[in-house]
Amino acid sequence: MNCAGKSTANLGSSSPSEHLQLFLFPIVFLVKKMKNYLVAGASSGIGKAITQQLLDAGQNVFAITGKAEIWKEHPNFSSVAGGFLENDWQAVGLPETLHGLVYSPGTINLKPFRGLKPEDFRNDFEVNVIGAVKVIQSALKALKASGQASVVLFSTVAVSQGMPYHSSIAASKGAVEGLVRSLAAEFAPAIRVNAIAPSLTATPLAEKLLSTPERVEASAKRHPLQRIGQPQDIAALACFLLGTEASWISGQVFGVDGGLSTLRL
Ligand SMILES: NC(=O)c1ccc[n+]([C@@H]2O[C@H](COP(=O)([O-])OP(=O)(O)OC[C@H]3O[C@@H](n4cnc5c(N)ncnc54)[C@H](OP(=O)(O)O)[C@@H]3O)[C@@H](O)[C@H]2O)c1
Fold first, then answer.
1. Which domain holds residue 215?
2. What kind and span of H or E run contains 198?
3. What is the pLDDT of residues 133-166, one digit of tens each?
4. Residue 182 Cα, ligand 1 centroid: separation in angstroms?
5. Is 13 domain-assigned?
């Protein structure tokens, strides 16, 4: 799937039958290609950018959120409250078949190790790992039903690169990376499972770290590509991984990090 949903039809044709073909092409294309995606965390940041790119590409998005007001009127968008996990899947309007799932809730709880309580580690683990486990378990039957589904989870650059004050989030995201490889093996070939490990990206989650122009500039300079990430940078890869063009990719963790994890200038 191309998330941009661009048609490659030749717009210079002129005969009536060619005009008809051109008129029908997008309709046939959409009917054939329209797929169902479940997004957890669609109201903000990276999850929001992924949802927008999927909707722009003509896909159906089912979001687990109470706050996705901006797409309220969109014909391809539905939202279900998080409590659906205890309810019946179809009773809350979720489809029998899912082609992809994105779990984007996450935390940034940066503190010196001595100031972190076991409760901080538990909370990060709950949001980043247990939350993903619950959603994947609930969606498993619908994902298997597609025969070729894709799951995208989120890690962080702070797993492959040791960074001060990141012990709690790095421990949880390290668990996410283990989960990705394990589930990719267990679910192959019917469901592919991959993760994206971003570096600092301009979202509400990272607001405090980017609260002044000086902070943004200092963060940009730490990256070989000299800028911080934008939600669309991450969403572009997520959408690629969700689509059939990535059908031979599973069990991977991809750094989208301005070169931070691999380059020394
Ligand atoms: N931004 C960065 O710099 C950065 C860097 C490295 C990794 N990441 C990872 O990338 C993923 C997406 O991050 P983001 O920056 O887009 O985050 P974000 O702006 O905070 O969006 C995450 C969304 O997840 C949902 N959510 C549901 N339960 C939550 C909970 N208990 N705690 C927090 N959020 C919850 C919320 O949306 P709903 O209201 O729709 O439920 C929330 O708006 C996360 O897994 C994050 O750890 C981000």
1. 34-256
2. strand 191-198
3. 999 999 999 999 999 999 999 999 999 999 999 9
4. 23
5. no
